[in-house]
């Protein structure tokens, strides 16, 4: 295993810049998800790392081994030691699970040792040992994806690339397969890059989330930083619901329709404040004094069981969305008091939408 470093990588198709000057470092043994809308260049980025495409500029290195760019002749895909897991496992339908997993092993390792390696890999991806003799069409979609991961990990690749590997699975299977894949990658300290357009998947699985837009990398940071301190308002809107309010910042604080809030970074003057709905605390009691909050009237409650979305109208006409526990919640028409918890990201006018 090794780290992965892309420096100024660019790739165009005719007049489309599919990947535009991307610089990204994936530390050894860590998991990065590349998140972005359809057509933003995610798959092209993976194909460049794998060596199926060659960038017109920039360089890619596995550890300190440059595989393309910097005047180095591009190392072909088969010698890059990359494991690739596509959208739908792409297992060989005529081979059983054991033969699929052993397929990527070097010829000399396929004989007697491959039995052990197959058993080890099945255990790693949490599949029963007797699955080894099943054919792919005797497996569920989630099981096929686990076998595809086992096949990619068997030869101990430098880096594993996963291209929307859970997109064909239904919601329940998606979560459990994703968690099993995450555990297998963690146990083997595998450097991995997974591309997805699913925000929940990107945030819940990764050590680092790299957000792409129009071929460019617009932010790479931990999941909580991307969610709570997005680099710009478009990223904020892409990774979740946001309440955006005008405010006036004075150093570490800002005032807005929800009262005074504490900023992630100091700012001054007119700003747009990005507040996540979970940060808006709805007080059903009627507190007084410092913790009174701002009074409003509940307009609408959407109940989802585990939580609910509450739309509140403030006296000045501002509409604010809150997400709160579904256990005890207000009803439409109730008077409530709102307070902002946690830190708030402020954008100066040039950054705002
Ligand atoms: N082989 C190609 N020839 C021409 N244009 C291409 C080629 N591959 C990709 N593109 C273009 O490059 C851009 C990025 O495509 P890419 O497949 O990398 O996006 P993506 O983010 O993976 O999208 P999706 O989530 O829909 O798979 C798109 O505008 C696409 O049309």
From TrEMBL:
- GO CC annotation, single: ATP-binding cassette (ABC) transporter complex
This enzyme's EC code(s): 7.6.2.9
Spell out the molecular function terms from Gene Ontology: ABC-type ferric iron transporter activity; ABC-type quaternary ammonium compound transporting activity; ATP binding; ATP hydrolysis activity
Q: Which InterPro entries match?
A: AAA+_ATPase, ABC_SmlMolc_Importer, ABC_transporter-like_ATP-bd, ABC_transporter-like_CS, ABC_transpr_FbpC, Mo/tungstate-bd_C_term_dom, P-loop_NTPase, Transp-assoc_OB_typ2
Which Gene3D superfamilies does this chain map to? P-loop containing nucleotide triphosphate hydrolases (3.40.50.300)
Q: List keywords of the entry alphabetically.
A: ATP-binding, Cell inner membrane, Cell membrane, Ion transport, Iron, Iron transport, Membrane, Nucleotide-binding, Translocase, Transport
Q: Which PANTHER family does UniProt cross-reference here?
A: PUTRESCINE TRANSPORT ATP-BINDING PROTEIN POTG (PTHR42781:SF5), SPERMIDINE/PUTRESCINE IMPORT ATP-BINDING PROTEIN POTA (PTHR42781)
Q: Is the keyword Cell membrane assigned to this protein?
A: yes
User: Which PROSITE patterns does the entry link to?
Assistant: ABC_TRANSPORTER_1, ABC_TRANSPORTER_2
Q: Which residues form the ABC transporter domain?
A: 4-239
What this protein is called in its record is: ABC-type quaternary amine transporter
Q: Which CDD domains match?
A: ABC_Carb_Solutes_like
């Amino acid at each position: 295993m090794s780290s992965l470093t892309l420096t100024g990588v660019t790739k165009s198709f005719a007049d489309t810049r599919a990947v535009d000057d991307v610089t990204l470092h994936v530390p050894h043994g860590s998991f990065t998800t590349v998140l972005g809308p359809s057509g933003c260049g995610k798959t092209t980025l993976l194909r460049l790392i794998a060596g199926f495409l060659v960038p017109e500029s920039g360089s890619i290195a596995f550890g300190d081994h440059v595989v393309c760019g910097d005047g180095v002749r591009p190392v072909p895909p088969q010698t890059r030691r990359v494991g690739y897991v596509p959208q739908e496992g792409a297992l060989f339908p005529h081979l059983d699970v054991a033969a699929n997993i052993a397929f990527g092993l070097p010829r000399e390792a396929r004989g007697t040792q491959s039995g052990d390696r197959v058993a080890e890999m099945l255990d790693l991806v949490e599949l029963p040992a007797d699955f080894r003799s099943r054919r792919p069409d005797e497996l569920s979609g989630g099981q096929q994806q686990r076998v595809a991961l086992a096949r990619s990990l068997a030869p101990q690749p430098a880096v594993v690339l996963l291209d929307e590997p859970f997109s064909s699975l239904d919601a329940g299977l998606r979560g459990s397969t994703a968690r099993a894949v995450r555990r297998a990658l963690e146990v083997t300290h595998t450097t991995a890059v997974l591309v997805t357009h699913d925000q929940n998947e990107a945030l819940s699985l990764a050590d680092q989330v790299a957000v792409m837009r129009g071929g460019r990398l617009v932010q790479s940071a931990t999941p909580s930083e991307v969610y709570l301190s997005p680099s710009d308002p478009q990223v904020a809107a892409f990774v979740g619901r946001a309440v955006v309010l005008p405010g006036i910042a004075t150093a570490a604080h800002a005032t807005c329709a929800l009262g005074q809030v504490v900023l992630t970074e100091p700012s001054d003057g007119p700003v747009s404040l990005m507040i996540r709905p979970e940060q808006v605390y709805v007080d059903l009691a009627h507190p007084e004094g410092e913790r009174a909050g701002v009074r409003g009237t509940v307009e609408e409650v959407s109940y989802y069981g585990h939580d609910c979305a509450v739309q509140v109208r403030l006296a000045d006409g501002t509409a604010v969305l809150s997400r709160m526990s579904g256990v005890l919640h207000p009803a439409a028409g109730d008077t409530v008091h709102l307070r902002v918890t946690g830190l708030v990201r402020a954008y100066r006018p040039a950054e705002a939408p």
